[in-house]
Design brief:
There is one protein chain. This protein is an alpha/beta fold and 200 residues long. The protein has 2 domains: 121 residues, Rossmann fold, CATH 3.40.50.300; 71 residues, no CATH class. It is 56% helix and 12% strand. The N and C termini lie close together (8 Å).
Length: 200
């Protein structure tokens, strides 16, 4: 079974693309979704996060206080490393479990920082990158979240550059047009991935 890595900078439309593959009955393993599950109510990462970051790291219901943690990791690189050391092994383990039970002809593995991680890069057979100009990505994120454009720029600065992503990509979707155009790009890749899978 082929594993297609899917990545793109914040605001590129990566989630919309993975949803479109899902609608084509392709299994999608999403590291972001796994991360949210680990830090939700009763999430298996929460006891360690509370132990290391204190009670203010969680809401009364036991889920992670994302605003507190986000501000902490952006101002303190050491805290970022501590958080990653808790989450990353758990995310990898759960993603691998989902890949192992996948039944579709190929599987999409969606990881925001795929380019930056040798572990994730070695886990995929092919890499699909979703791209859009930075100004458009900032605009999208500002519209969908409560973040200011400065905060979005700060997040972008921690991610791989467009050039780095394009350099690593086997396939690229330029997400600058309509939803129908995006759907067409996904369908075209879907039929190519199916034919590649048949060749194996």
């Amino acid at each position: 079974m082929k594993v297609i890595g899917l990545t793109g900078g914040i605001g590129s439309g990566k989630t919309t693309v993975s949803d479109l593959f899902g609608e084509l009955d392709i299994d999608v393993v999403d590291a972001d979704v796994v991360s949210r599950q680990l830090t939700a109510v009763n999430g298996s990462a929460m006891p360690e996060i509370i132990r290391l970051f204190g009670p203010e790291a969680a809401f009364p219901n036991g889920s992670m206080n994302r605003k507190f943690i986000r501000e902490l990791v952006f101002s303190d690189p050491e805290a970022k490393t501590v958080l990653e050391n808790i989450l990353h092994p758990l995310i990898r383990k759960e993603c691998q479990r989902q890949l192992d039970v996948s039944q579709s002809p190929y599987t999409i593995l969606s990881v925001p920082l795929l380019i930056e991680s040798p572990f994730w890069r070695s886990s995929v057979d092919r890499l699909l990158v979703v791209e859009a100009p930075e100004a458009l990505r900032i605009e999208r994120v500002v519209q969908r979240s409560n973040l200011l454009s400065e905060a979005v720029k700060k997040i972008i600065s921690t991610q791989a550059t467009t050039a780095q992503r394009l350099d690593a990509a086997d396939d690229v979707i330029e997400n600058v047009g309509t939803f129908e155009m995006l759907k067409g790009s996904v369908l075209k890749l879907h039929s190519m991935y199916l034919s590649l899978t048949k060749k194996d």
